[in-house]
Amino acid sequence: MSIKEDRIVESLLFSAGKPLSVEEIQETTGMSPKHVSDAIDHLMQSYNNERKDETSLEIVKAGSKFIMQVKKTFTEKSMMVAKPEIRTDLLKTLALIAFHQPVKQSNLRHMIGERIYGDVDQLMNMHLVHSEPHGATEVLTTTRLFPEYFGIDSTKPEEIREFLAKKVIGHVVKEKQQELSKEDESVSEANTEEQSPQTQMKSE
After folding, report:
1. 83 with 66, same domain?
2. Is 174 found in the same domain as 94?
3. How many domains does the chain have?
4. Model's pTM, two decimal places?
5. Angle, helix 3-16 to helix 33-45, in steps of 10 degrees
6. Is 96 exposed, middle or buried (0-12, 13-18, 19+ CB in 10 A)?
7. Which of 127, 13, 140 is nearest to 79 (CA)?
């Protein structure tokens, strides 16, 4: 096993931004499954034990896959620097949780369907939503990072609701404008194509 192979696997885990399986790493690098597994073991030993006080990163197993991520201790600070854009449907789910919190996940499923589970997972990964077991379901609330993330000074529920309503409307309007812009471009291109033969006939 070479240090170079360790570095190759390390670079993949760092740049992927998602969990990778041994098979996925093998396909990308051409390394044998054993060499990939050995490299992961070496990296986990280094990041999680030998250098755990020297780095803000860790390598963890997620099911049958592995991911390099920022330790929870540092997550909130790093999130404020590189805030990912929230797509409109996810923002709507977050708004529902903020409006009705504490709210049962099962109640939200009746409102927006099965996609609630995937949305909640994403919002929890972004540390914007907190989940607590409640019988056969979960009770959802926003986290203390939530107002900081959106730059909301107030913690009053009504002011947060008003802010999110405007935010959702703003996203919807922006998406509609982008759709209309694309439609205008398509119409313009179609008109140009229709006019071209006529222009050619006139020139002849």
Report:
1. no
2. yes
3. 2
4. 0.44
5. 80
6. buried
7. 127
Q: What's the rounded Cα separation, in Å, for the pair 10 and 42?
A: 10
Q: Which domain holds residue 168?
A: 76-195
Cα gap 126→149, rounded to integer Å = 10
**190 and 122 in a common domain:** yes
pLDDT, tens digit, for every residue of 146-164? 777 776 666 666 676 677 7
Matching residue, tokens 């995937």: 118
- 26 and 63 belong to one structural domain: yes
CATH number at residue 26: 1.10.10.10
Written in H, E and C, the secondary structure of the chain is CCHHHHHHHHHHHHHHCCCECHHHHHHHHCCCHHHHHHHHHHHHHHHHHHCCCCCCEEEEEECCEEEEEECHHHHHHHHHHCCCCCCHHHHHHHHHHHHHCCEEHHHHHHHHCCHHHHHHHHHHHCCCEEEEEECCEEEEEECCHHHHHHCCCCCCHHHHHHHHHHHHHHHHHHHHHHHHHHHHHHHHHHHHHHHHHHHHHHHC
Residue 187 lies in a domain: yes
Query: What span, in angstroms and rounded, lies between the C-alpha atoms of 111 and 89?
Result: 13
Residues of the chain with pLDDT under 70: 1, 17, 72-85, 151-158, 160-161, 165-204
Q: Write the CA distances from 147 to 57, 74, 141, 151, integer angstroms.
A: 26, 18, 12, 6
Alpha-carbon gap, residue 184 to 195, rounded angstroms: 16
